[in-house]
Amino acid sequence: MQCSYDRRGNSVPTILLLMQRRLYEQGGLRAEGIFRINAENSQEEHLREQLNDGVVPEGIDVHCLAGLIKAWFRELPTGVLDSLSSEQVMQCQTEEECGRLARLLPPTEAALLDWAINLMADVVQEEEQNKMNARNVATVFAPNMTQMADPLTALMYAVQVMNFLRMLILRTLKERRESAVEDAAVSGADPSDEDGHQSPQMHLAACSEEATERAHVAEEAVSDSLPRIATEEEEEEAARSSHDDAAFFSENAAGSSTGHEVHTKTGRSSSQNHRKGRKAKRESTDRASLPAEKLKGSSIVSRINSKIEGVEAWR
Amino acid sequence: MDSSSSSQPEFDYLFKLLMIGDSGVGKSSLLLRFTLDSFEDLSPTIGVDFKVKMVTLGGKKLKLAIWDTAGQERFRTLTSSYYRGAQGIIMVYDVTRRETFTNLSDVWAREIDLYSTNQDCIKMLVGNKVDKESERAVTKKEGLDVARGYGCLFLECSAKTRVNVEQCFEELVLKILDTPSLCAEGSAGVKKNIFKQKPAQADASTSSCC
Protein backbone atom coordinates (compact mmCIF):
# COMPACT_ATOMS: atom_id res chain seq x y z
CA MET A 1 0.00 0.00 0.00
CA GLN A 2 1.37 3.37 -0.94
CA CYS A 3 1.79 5.96 1.73
CA SER A 4 2.15 9.71 1.52
CA TYR A 5 2.76 12.40 4.05
CA ASP A 6 -0.01 14.57 5.31
CA ARG A 7 0.56 18.19 6.25
CA ARG A 8 1.74 17.22 9.71
CA GLY A 9 4.32 14.78 8.42
CA ASN A 10 2.24 11.71 9.19
CA SER A 11 2.84 8.90 6.77
CA VAL A 12 -0.62 7.62 5.90
CA PRO A 13 -1.94 5.56 3.00
CA THR A 14 -2.32 7.73 -0.09
CA ILE A 15 -5.84 6.48 -0.65
CA LEU A 16 -6.95 8.10 2.60
CA LEU A 17 -5.45 11.39 1.51
CA LEU A 18 -7.13 11.11 -1.88
CA MET A 19 -10.49 10.45 -0.30
CA GLN A 20 -9.96 13.26 2.20
CA ARG A 21 -9.07 15.66 -0.60
CA ARG A 22 -12.19 14.76 -2.57
CA LEU A 23 -14.29 15.08 0.53
CA TYR A 24 -13.00 18.59 1.20
CA GLU A 25 -13.18 19.68 -2.44
CA GLN A 26 -16.80 18.64 -2.63
CA GLY A 27 -17.74 20.59 0.45
CA GLY A 28 -18.08 17.50 2.60
CA LEU A 29 -16.94 19.34 5.70
CA ARG A 30 -20.04 21.48 5.59
CA ALA A 31 -22.49 18.67 4.81
CA GLU A 32 -24.94 18.10 7.64
CA GLY A 33 -24.20 14.92 9.54
CA ILE A 34 -20.95 14.21 7.72
CA PHE A 35 -19.46 10.91 8.96
CA ARG A 36 -22.69 10.15 10.73
CA ILE A 37 -24.93 9.61 7.74
CA ASN A 38 -24.72 6.38 5.77
CA ALA A 39 -24.41 6.54 2.02
CA GLU A 40 -26.49 4.41 -0.25
CA ASN A 41 -25.28 0.88 0.22
CA SER A 42 -25.09 0.04 -3.47
CA GLN A 43 -23.17 3.25 -4.25
CA GLU A 44 -20.64 2.45 -1.57
CA GLU A 45 -20.08 -1.01 -2.95
CA HIS A 46 -19.67 0.41 -6.43
CA LEU A 47 -17.15 3.00 -5.27
CA ARG A 48 -15.17 0.35 -3.45
CA GLU A 49 -14.81 -1.58 -6.69
CA GLN A 50 -13.69 1.51 -8.56
CA LEU A 51 -11.14 2.45 -5.92
CA ASN A 52 -9.82 -1.07 -5.94
CA ASP A 53 -9.38 -0.73 -9.70
CA GLY A 54 -7.37 2.43 -9.15
CA VAL A 55 -10.07 4.90 -10.16
CA VAL A 56 -11.25 7.76 -7.97
CA PRO A 57 -14.38 8.83 -9.85
CA GLU A 58 -15.78 12.36 -9.94
CA GLY A 59 -18.95 13.45 -8.24
CA ILE A 60 -19.14 10.87 -5.49
CA ASP A 61 -21.57 11.53 -2.69
CA VAL A 62 -19.67 13.06 0.23
CA HIS A 63 -21.31 10.66 2.66
CA CYS A 64 -20.02 7.80 0.58
CA LEU A 65 -16.45 9.15 0.83
CA ALA A 66 -16.80 9.69 4.56
CA GLY A 67 -18.27 6.23 4.98
CA LEU A 68 -15.36 4.65 3.17
CA ILE A 69 -12.83 6.50 5.29
CA LYS A 70 -14.49 4.99 8.35
CA ALA A 71 -14.67 1.63 6.62
CA TRP A 72 -10.94 1.75 5.93
CA PHE A 73 -10.26 1.96 9.65
CA ARG A 74 -12.92 -0.57 10.50
CA GLU A 75 -11.56 -3.17 8.13
CA LEU A 76 -7.94 -3.04 9.20
CA PRO A 77 -6.74 -6.40 10.49
CA THR A 78 -6.32 -4.80 13.90
CA GLY A 79 -7.82 -1.58 15.20
CA VAL A 80 -5.65 1.52 15.31
CA LEU A 81 -6.05 1.74 19.09
CA ASP A 82 -5.76 -1.98 19.80
CA SER A 83 -2.24 -1.72 21.18
CA LEU A 84 -3.58 0.34 24.07
CA SER A 85 -5.27 -1.51 26.87
CA SER A 86 -8.82 -0.56 27.77
CA GLU A 87 -7.60 0.27 31.28
CA GLN A 88 -5.17 2.79 29.87
CA VAL A 89 -7.87 4.39 27.75
CA MET A 90 -10.32 4.41 30.62
CA GLN A 91 -7.89 6.10 32.97
CA CYS A 92 -7.40 9.10 30.71
CA GLN A 93 -9.52 11.90 32.08
CA THR A 94 -7.86 15.02 30.72
CA GLU A 95 -6.76 16.20 27.31
CA GLU A 96 -3.14 16.03 28.43
CA GLU A 97 -3.45 12.45 29.63
CA CYS A 98 -5.08 11.42 26.39
CA GLY A 99 -2.33 13.14 24.43
CA ARG A 100 0.32 11.33 26.45
CA LEU A 101 -1.36 7.99 25.87
CA ALA A 102 -1.64 8.61 22.13
CA ARG A 103 2.11 9.05 22.03
CA LEU A 104 2.55 5.49 23.28
CA LEU A 105 1.13 4.09 20.05
CA PRO A 106 3.51 2.48 17.56
CA PRO A 107 4.58 4.92 14.80
CA THR A 108 2.16 3.67 12.13
CA GLU A 109 -0.85 3.74 14.40
CA ALA A 110 0.21 7.06 15.86
CA ALA A 111 0.37 8.59 12.38
CA LEU A 112 -3.02 7.19 11.44
CA LEU A 113 -4.58 8.42 14.65
CA ASP A 114 -3.07 11.86 14.29
CA TRP A 115 -4.35 12.11 10.74
CA ALA A 116 -7.80 10.95 11.81
CA ILE A 117 -7.97 13.32 14.77
CA ASN A 118 -7.09 16.24 12.53
CA LEU A 119 -9.72 15.16 10.06
CA MET A 120 -12.26 15.08 12.88
CA ALA A 121 -11.08 18.48 14.09
CA ASP A 122 -11.61 19.84 10.57
CA VAL A 123 -15.16 18.52 10.76
CA VAL A 124 -15.78 20.07 14.16
CA GLN A 125 -14.53 23.45 12.97
CA GLU A 126 -17.53 23.49 10.63
CA GLU A 127 -19.88 22.43 13.39
CA GLU A 128 -22.30 25.28 12.73
CA GLN A 129 -22.91 23.94 9.25
CA ASN A 130 -22.56 20.19 9.68
CA LYS A 131 -23.97 19.88 13.22
CA MET A 132 -21.14 17.52 14.12
CA ASN A 133 -19.58 18.56 17.40
CA ALA A 134 -16.57 16.80 18.93
CA ARG A 135 -18.76 14.34 20.76
CA ASN A 136 -20.78 13.44 17.69
CA VAL A 137 -17.85 12.88 15.38
CA ALA A 138 -15.95 10.98 18.09
CA THR A 139 -18.99 8.77 18.61
CA VAL A 140 -19.22 7.73 15.00
CA PHE A 141 -15.47 7.13 14.67
CA ALA A 142 -14.95 5.33 17.98
CA PRO A 143 -16.32 1.90 17.06
CA ASN A 144 -14.09 1.83 14.01
CA MET A 145 -10.87 2.32 15.92
CA THR A 146 -10.89 -0.88 17.94
CA GLN A 147 -11.75 -4.49 17.32
CA MET A 148 -13.26 -6.65 19.97
CA ALA A 149 -14.59 -10.13 19.69
CA ASP A 150 -17.24 -9.74 22.34
CA PRO A 151 -19.93 -7.29 21.24
CA LEU A 152 -20.91 -6.24 24.73
CA THR A 153 -17.35 -5.39 25.73
CA ALA A 154 -16.99 -3.60 22.43
CA LEU A 155 -20.04 -1.54 23.19
CA MET A 156 -18.85 -0.49 26.62
CA TYR A 157 -15.36 0.17 25.34
CA ALA A 158 -16.73 2.30 22.49
CA VAL A 159 -17.90 4.82 25.07
CA GLN A 160 -14.39 5.07 26.51
CA VAL A 161 -12.84 5.36 23.07
CA MET A 162 -15.36 8.03 22.18
CA ASN A 163 -14.24 10.07 25.18
CA PHE A 164 -10.60 9.49 24.33
CA LEU A 165 -11.12 10.71 20.75
CA ARG A 166 -13.20 13.64 21.90
CA MET A 167 -10.43 14.79 24.24
CA LEU A 168 -7.87 14.54 21.46
CA ILE A 169 -10.09 16.50 19.07
CA LEU A 170 -10.63 19.26 21.63
CA ARG A 171 -6.93 19.36 22.35
CA THR A 172 -6.14 19.67 18.65
CA LEU A 173 -8.64 22.47 18.23
CA LYS A 174 -7.10 24.29 21.16
CA GLU A 175 -3.63 23.92 19.64
CA ARG A 176 -4.92 25.25 16.35
CA ARG A 177 -6.40 28.31 17.99
CA GLU A 178 -3.17 28.98 19.81
CA SER A 179 -1.04 28.53 16.73
CA ALA A 180 -3.39 30.73 14.72
CA VAL A 181 -2.68 33.48 17.19
CA GLU A 182 1.06 32.87 16.93
CA ASP A 183 0.88 32.77 13.15
CA ALA A 184 -0.85 36.09 13.07
CA ALA A 185 1.94 37.51 15.19
CA VAL A 186 4.73 36.33 12.89
CA SER A 187 2.90 36.49 9.57
CA GLY A 188 5.73 37.21 7.24
CA ALA A 189 7.40 34.99 4.66
CA ASP A 190 5.28 32.31 3.08
CA PRO A 191 7.06 29.06 3.90
CA SER A 192 6.27 27.63 0.51
CA ASP A 193 8.44 30.35 -1.08
CA GLU A 194 11.39 28.25 -0.19
CA ASP A 195 10.81 25.55 -2.75
CA GLY A 196 9.34 27.75 -5.42
CA HIS A 197 12.31 27.25 -7.67
CA GLN A 198 11.98 23.49 -7.74
CA SER A 199 8.57 23.18 -9.24
CA PRO A 200 6.89 26.39 -10.19
CA GLN A 201 3.77 24.70 -11.56
CA MET A 202 3.04 22.88 -8.39
CA HIS A 203 3.78 25.89 -6.37
CA LEU A 204 1.31 27.90 -8.37
CA ALA A 205 -1.30 25.25 -7.99
CA ALA A 206 -0.78 25.20 -4.30
CA CYS A 207 -0.88 28.96 -4.04
CA SER A 208 -4.09 29.37 -5.96
CA GLU A 209 -5.58 26.62 -3.95
CA GLU A 210 -4.55 28.37 -0.82
CA ALA A 211 -5.90 31.64 -2.00
CA THR A 212 -9.37 30.22 -2.32
CA GLU A 213 -9.30 28.87 1.16
CA ARG A 214 -9.95 30.91 4.20
CA ALA A 215 -6.81 32.09 5.89
CA HIS A 216 -7.10 29.40 8.44
CA VAL A 217 -4.15 27.30 9.43
CA ALA A 218 -5.99 24.05 9.48
CA GLU A 219 -7.90 24.34 6.27
CA GLU A 220 -5.15 25.81 4.22
CA ALA A 221 -2.72 23.20 5.32
CA VAL A 222 -4.87 20.24 4.49
CA SER A 223 -5.49 20.89 0.84
CA ASP A 224 -1.91 21.94 0.47
CA SER A 225 -0.46 18.75 1.77
CA LEU A 226 -2.45 16.43 -0.39
CA PRO A 227 -1.05 15.09 -3.60
CA ARG A 228 -1.57 17.77 -6.19
CA ILE A 229 -1.62 16.87 -9.84
CA ALA A 230 -0.08 19.70 -11.77
CA THR A 231 1.87 18.38 -14.73
CA GLU A 232 1.17 15.64 -17.20
CA GLU A 233 4.04 13.63 -15.89
CA GLU A 234 2.66 13.83 -12.45
CA GLU A 235 -0.76 12.99 -13.68
CA GLU A 236 0.61 9.82 -15.14
CA GLU A 237 2.42 9.08 -11.98
CA ALA A 238 -0.69 9.72 -9.97
CA ALA A 239 -2.62 7.31 -12.12
CA ARG A 240 0.04 4.71 -11.66
CA SER A 241 0.42 5.30 -7.99
CA SER A 242 -3.28 5.24 -7.35
CA HIS A 243 -3.19 1.92 -9.09
CA ASP A 244 -0.81 0.79 -6.44
CA ASP A 245 -3.50 1.61 -4.01
CA ALA A 246 -5.76 -0.70 -5.87
CA ALA A 247 -7.46 -3.27 -3.76
CA PHE A 248 -6.76 -1.34 -0.61
CA PHE A 249 -9.89 -2.66 0.93
CA SER A 250 -9.30 -6.21 -0.13
CA GLU A 251 -5.69 -5.94 0.91
CA ASN A 252 -6.85 -4.92 4.31
CA ALA A 253 -9.28 -7.72 4.45
CA ALA A 254 -6.88 -10.34 3.28
CA GLY A 255 -4.28 -8.58 5.21
CA SER A 256 -1.59 -9.05 7.62
CA SER A 257 -2.06 -9.42 11.28
CA THR A 258 -0.85 -6.06 12.44
CA GLY A 259 -1.45 -2.54 11.38
CA HIS A 260 2.23 -2.04 11.08
CA GLU A 261 2.55 -4.68 8.45
CA VAL A 262 -0.29 -3.20 6.49
CA HIS A 263 1.61 -0.04 6.38
CA THR A 264 4.88 -1.52 5.24
CA LYS A 265 3.39 -4.03 2.90
CA THR A 266 3.85 -2.07 -0.26
CA GLY A 267 4.31 -2.39 -3.94
CA ARG A 268 7.64 -1.67 -5.52
CA SER A 269 6.99 1.91 -6.50
CA SER A 270 5.32 2.73 -3.28
CA SER A 271 8.25 1.70 -1.18
CA GLN A 272 10.43 3.84 -3.37
CA ASN A 273 8.10 6.63 -2.81
CA HIS A 274 8.20 6.02 0.83
CA ARG A 275 11.97 6.23 0.91
CA LYS A 276 11.87 9.43 -1.01
CA GLY A 277 9.42 10.70 1.48
CA ARG A 278 11.73 9.90 4.33
CA LYS A 279 14.63 11.46 2.56
CA ALA A 280 12.67 14.54 1.77
CA LYS A 281 11.70 14.84 5.34
CA ARG A 282 15.31 14.74 6.40
CA GLU A 283 16.37 17.17 3.74
CA SER A 284 13.67 19.55 4.64
CA THR A 285 15.22 20.10 7.98
CA ASP A 286 18.30 21.63 6.43
CA ARG A 287 16.25 23.20 3.70
CA ALA A 288 17.92 21.38 0.85
CA SER A 289 16.02 21.24 -2.41
CA LEU A 290 15.16 18.09 -4.27
CA PRO A 291 16.43 17.41 -7.76
CA ALA A 292 13.75 17.56 -10.42
CA GLU A 293 13.81 13.84 -11.23
CA LYS A 294 12.88 12.97 -7.74
CA LEU A 295 9.92 15.24 -7.85
CA LYS A 296 8.53 13.42 -10.82
CA GLY A 297 7.92 10.38 -8.74
CA SER A 298 6.28 12.04 -5.84
CA SER A 299 4.55 15.33 -6.10
CA ILE A 300 3.55 14.90 -2.54
CA VAL A 301 7.04 14.81 -1.23
CA SER A 302 7.95 18.27 -2.39
CA ARG A 303 4.79 19.59 -0.96
CA ILE A 304 5.62 18.01 2.30
CA ASN A 305 9.08 19.39 2.02
CA SER A 306 7.81 22.90 2.21
CA LYS A 307 5.06 22.01 4.54
CA ILE A 308 7.00 20.32 7.25
CA GLU A 309 8.61 23.60 8.08
CA GLY A 310 5.21 25.12 8.32
CA VAL A 311 3.98 22.31 10.44
CA GLU A 312 6.90 22.50 12.76
CA ALA A 313 6.42 26.19 13.04
CA TRP A 314 2.95 25.89 14.47
CA ARG A 315 3.30 22.70 16.31
CA MET B 1 -42.32 -12.84 47.06
CA ASP B 2 -45.63 -14.24 48.17
CA SER B 3 -47.26 -10.87 48.08
CA SER B 4 -46.37 -10.32 44.43
CA SER B 5 -48.66 -13.11 43.29
CA SER B 6 -51.63 -11.74 45.19
CA SER B 7 -51.18 -8.06 44.28
CA GLN B 8 -52.42 -6.51 41.04
CA PRO B 9 -49.85 -7.06 38.26
CA GLU B 10 -48.09 -3.93 37.12
CA PHE B 11 -49.07 -4.64 33.51
CA ASP B 12 -50.95 -7.17 31.41
CA TYR B 13 -48.43 -7.50 28.67
CA LEU B 14 -44.77 -6.73 28.16
CA PHE B 15 -43.78 -6.21 24.56
CA LYS B 16 -40.34 -5.82 23.13
CA LEU B 17 -40.10 -3.39 20.24
CA LEU B 18 -37.04 -2.67 18.15
CA MET B 19 -36.14 0.36 16.07
CA ILE B 20 -33.80 0.01 13.13
CA GLY B 21 -32.71 2.08 10.15
CA ASP B 22 -29.85 4.20 8.85
CA SER B 23 -27.92 6.62 10.98
CA GLY B 24 -29.57 10.00 11.33
CA VAL B 25 -33.08 9.07 10.19
CA GLY B 26 -34.48 9.97 13.60
CA LYS B 27 -34.90 6.69 15.48
CA SER B 28 -33.81 8.16 18.79
CA SER B 29 -35.80 11.31 18.14
CA LEU B 30 -38.95 9.28 17.53
CA LEU B 31 -38.37 7.39 20.73
CA LEU B 32 -37.71 10.56 22.69
CA ARG B 33 -40.88 12.12 21.31
CA PHE B 34 -42.91 9.05 22.13
CA THR B 35 -41.56 8.45 25.63
CA LEU B 36 -40.92 11.97 26.92
CA ASP B 37 -42.73 14.11 24.35
CA SER B 38 -39.70 16.23 23.67
CA PHE B 39 -37.46 17.01 20.74
CA GLU B 40 -33.83 18.08 20.59
CA ASP B 41 -30.63 17.62 18.59
CA LEU B 42 -29.41 14.21 19.61
CA SER B 43 -25.96 12.69 19.42
CA PRO B 44 -25.53 9.46 17.49
CA THR B 45 -26.55 6.44 19.54
CA ILE B 46 -23.76 4.25 20.83
CA GLY B 47 -24.74 0.65 20.29
CA VAL B 48 -28.22 0.41 21.73
CA ASP B 49 -30.45 2.50 23.90
CA PHE B 50 -33.43 1.32 25.79
CA LYS B 51 -36.58 3.03 27.02
CA VAL B 52 -39.70 1.83 28.72
CA LYS B 53 -43.14 3.29 28.34
CA MET B 54 -46.39 2.24 29.98
CA VAL B 55 -49.49 2.66 27.84
CA THR B 56 -53.07 1.55 28.05
CA LEU B 57 -54.48 0.30 24.79
CA GLY B 58 -57.58 -1.75 24.07
CA GLY B 59 -58.28 -1.90 27.78
CA LYS B 60 -54.94 -3.54 28.51
CA LYS B 61 -52.07 -2.18 30.51
CA LEU B 62 -48.96 -2.53 28.41
CA LYS B 63 -45.33 -2.17 29.25
CA LEU B 64 -43.35 -1.38 26.13
CA ALA B 65 -39.62 -2.02 26.19
CA ILE B 66 -38.29 -0.18 23.19
CA TRP B 67 -34.79 -0.88 21.95
CA ASP B 68 -33.27 1.88 19.91
CA THR B 69 -30.31 0.68 17.88
CA ALA B 70 -27.38 2.63 16.43
CA GLY B 71 -27.47 3.08 12.67
CA GLN B 72 -23.67 3.05 12.45
CA GLU B 73 -22.46 0.17 10.41
CA ARG B 74 -20.00 -1.14 12.97
CA PHE B 75 -22.78 -1.70 15.43
CA ARG B 76 -24.78 -3.94 13.13
CA THR B 77 -23.17 -7.10 14.43
CA LEU B 78 -23.92 -5.97 17.94
CA THR B 79 -27.48 -4.84 17.35
CA SER B 80 -28.37 -8.06 15.58
CA SER B 81 -28.44 -9.80 18.93
CA TYR B 82 -31.26 -7.50 19.98
CA TYR B 83 -33.59 -8.72 17.24
CA ARG B 84 -34.18 -11.88 19.20
CA GLY B 85 -37.59 -12.11 20.75
CA ALA B 86 -38.91 -8.78 19.52
CA GLN B 87 -42.66 -8.71 18.96
CA GLY B 88 -42.47 -5.58 16.84
CA ILE B 89 -39.85 -4.00 14.61
CA ILE B 90 -40.03 -0.41 13.45
CA MET B 91 -38.02 0.28 10.29
CA VAL B 92 -37.37 3.99 10.04
CA TYR B 93 -36.28 6.02 7.04
CA ASP B 94 -35.94 9.72 6.34
CA VAL B 95 -38.40 10.90 3.65
CA THR B 96 -35.87 13.59 2.60
CA ARG B 97 -33.02 11.14 1.99
CA ARG B 98 -33.77 8.53 -0.58
CA GLU B 99 -30.80 6.32 0.31
CA THR B 100 -32.22 5.71 3.77
CA PHE B 101 -35.29 4.29 2.04
CA THR B 102 -33.42 2.09 -0.42
CA ASN B 103 -31.08 0.88 2.33
CA LEU B 104 -34.09 -0.46 4.21
CA SER B 105 -34.61 -2.96 1.42
CA ASP B 106 -30.89 -3.49 0.69
CA VAL B 107 -29.61 -3.77 4.22
CA TRP B 108 -32.16 -3.68 6.98
CA ALA B 109 -34.82 -6.04 5.64
CA ARG B 110 -32.03 -8.59 5.21
CA GLU B 111 -30.98 -8.09 8.81
CA ILE B 112 -34.51 -8.84 9.96
CA ASP B 113 -34.64 -12.04 7.90
CA LEU B 114 -31.30 -13.12 9.34
CA TYR B 115 -31.74 -12.29 12.97
CA SER B 116 -35.35 -12.00 13.90
CA THR B 117 -36.30 -15.20 15.69
CA ASN B 118 -39.96 -14.44 15.75
CA GLN B 119 -41.87 -15.56 12.68
CA ASP B 120 -45.02 -13.66 13.55
CA CYS B 121 -43.23 -10.48 14.59
CA ILE B 122 -45.04 -7.36 13.36
CA LYS B 123 -43.07 -5.01 11.17
CA MET B 124 -43.78 -1.39 10.54
CA LEU B 125 -42.28 0.94 7.97
CA VAL B 126 -42.05 4.54 9.14
CA GLY B 127 -41.07 7.54 7.02
CA ASN B 128 -39.86 10.27 9.38
CA LYS B 129 -39.26 14.03 8.90
CA VAL B 130 -42.45 14.86 6.99
CA ASP B 131 -42.09 18.36 8.43
CA LYS B 132 -39.51 18.92 5.67
CA GLU B 133 -42.11 18.54 2.94
CA SER B 134 -40.20 20.72 0.48
CA GLU B 135 -37.18 18.41 0.68
CA ARG B 136 -39.15 15.23 0.27
CA ALA B 137 -37.33 12.61 -1.82
CA VAL B 138 -39.57 9.61 -1.23
CA THR B 139 -43.28 9.79 -2.00
CA LYS B 140 -45.91 8.38 0.30
CA LYS B 141 -46.98 5.99 -2.43
CA GLU B 142 -43.47 4.54 -2.71
CA GLY B 143 -43.47 3.95 1.01
CA LEU B 144 -46.87 2.28 0.83
CA ASP B 145 -45.79 0.06 -2.05
CA VAL B 146 -42.70 -1.18 -0.25
CA ALA B 147 -44.69 -1.75 2.93
CA ARG B 148 -47.23 -3.75 0.98
CA GLY B 149 -44.41 -5.77 -0.56
CA TYR B 150 -43.05 -6.68 2.83
CA GLY B 151 -46.48 -7.16 4.31
CA CYS B 152 -45.91 -4.57 7.00
CA LEU B 153 -47.66 -1.55 8.42
CA PHE B 154 -46.85 1.91 7.15
CA LEU B 155 -47.02 5.48 8.43
CA GLU B 156 -45.35 8.79 7.75
CA CYS B 157 -44.55 10.96 10.75
CA SER B 158 -42.44 13.75 12.20
CA ALA B 159 -40.65 13.51 15.52
CA LYS B 160 -40.15 17.25 15.33
CA THR B 161 -43.81 18.23 14.96
CA ARG B 162 -45.05 15.04 16.70
CA VAL B 163 -47.37 14.28 13.76
CA ASN B 164 -48.29 10.58 13.79
CA VAL B 165 -45.63 9.61 16.32
CA GLU B 166 -47.99 8.09 18.84
CA GLN B 167 -49.94 6.46 16.05
CA CYS B 168 -46.81 4.63 14.89
CA PHE B 169 -46.40 2.87 18.19
CA GLU B 170 -50.11 2.43 18.77
CA GLU B 171 -50.83 0.80 15.43
CA LEU B 172 -47.92 -1.54 15.89
CA VAL B 173 -48.98 -2.53 19.38
CA LEU B 174 -52.63 -2.99 18.40
CA LYS B 175 -51.51 -5.35 15.67
CA ILE B 176 -49.39 -7.26 18.17
CA LEU B 177 -52.41 -7.51 20.48
CA ASP B 178 -54.33 -8.92 17.52
CA THR B 179 -51.81 -11.71 17.12
CA PRO B 180 -52.40 -14.47 19.68
CA SER B 181 -48.91 -15.98 19.51
CA LEU B 182 -47.31 -12.61 20.25
CA CYS B 183 -49.76 -11.87 23.03
CA ALA B 184 -48.90 -15.20 24.60
CA GLU B 185 -45.22 -14.31 24.57
CA GLY B 186 -45.84 -10.92 26.09
CA SER B 187 -48.34 -11.98 28.69
CA ALA B 188 -47.27 -11.08 32.22
CA GLY B 189 -48.05 -14.58 33.49
CA VAL B 190 -45.69 -16.21 31.04
CA LYS B 191 -42.81 -14.02 32.06
CA LYS B 192 -43.34 -14.56 35.76
CA ASN B 193 -43.70 -18.30 35.75
CA ILE B 194 -41.48 -19.07 32.87
CA PHE B 195 -40.46 -22.48 34.18
CA LYS B 196 -43.87 -23.56 35.37
CA GLN B 197 -45.46 -22.39 32.15
CA LYS B 198 -43.26 -24.40 29.85
CA PRO B 199 -44.92 -27.78 30.16
CA ALA B 200 -48.31 -26.12 30.02
CA GLN B 201 -47.34 -24.40 26.79
CA ALA B 202 -46.22 -27.68 25.30
CA ASP B 203 -49.59 -29.18 26.12
CA ALA B 204 -51.36 -26.25 24.59
CA SER B 205 -49.42 -26.48 21.37
CA THR B 206 -50.10 -30.15 20.90
CA SER B 207 -53.76 -29.73 21.46
CA SER B 208 -54.21 -26.66 19.33
CA CYS B 209 -52.11 -27.47 16.30
CA CYS B 210 -53.38 -30.94 15.44
UniProtKB/TrEMBL annotation, chain A:
Classification via Pfam families: RhoGAP (PF00620)
Presence of the UniProt keyword Hydrolase in the record: no
KW Nucleotide-binding (keyword) present: no
Coiled-coil spans in chain: none
GO terms assigned for molecular function: GTPase activator activity
Database matches in InterPro entries: Rho_GTPase_activation_prot, RhoGAP_dom, RopGAP1-5
One GO BP: signal transduction
PROSITE patterns named in the record: RHOGAP
Region feature Disordered, mapped onto this chain: 182-300
Protein name from the UniProt record: RhoGAP domain containing protein
Organism from which the protein derives: Musa troglodytarum (fe'i banana)
Lineage: Eukaryota, Viridiplantae, Streptophyta, Embryophyta, Tracheophyta
From TrEMBL, chain B:
Any one of the GO CC terms: plasma membrane
Topology within the bilayer: Lipid-anchor
Subcellular location: Cell membrane
Coiled-coil region list: none
Any single GO BP term: protein transport
Pfam families hit by this protein: Ras (PF00071)
Annotated GO MF terms: GTP binding; GTPase activity
Keyword line: Cell membrane, GTP-binding, Lipoprotein, Membrane, Nucleotide-binding, Protein transport, Transport
Family: Belongs to the small GTPase superfamily. Rab family.
Function (record text): Intracellular vesicle trafficking and protein transport.
Family matches, as NCBIfam families: small_GTP
Name the UniProt record assigns to this protein: Uncharacterized protein
Organism: Musa troglodytarum
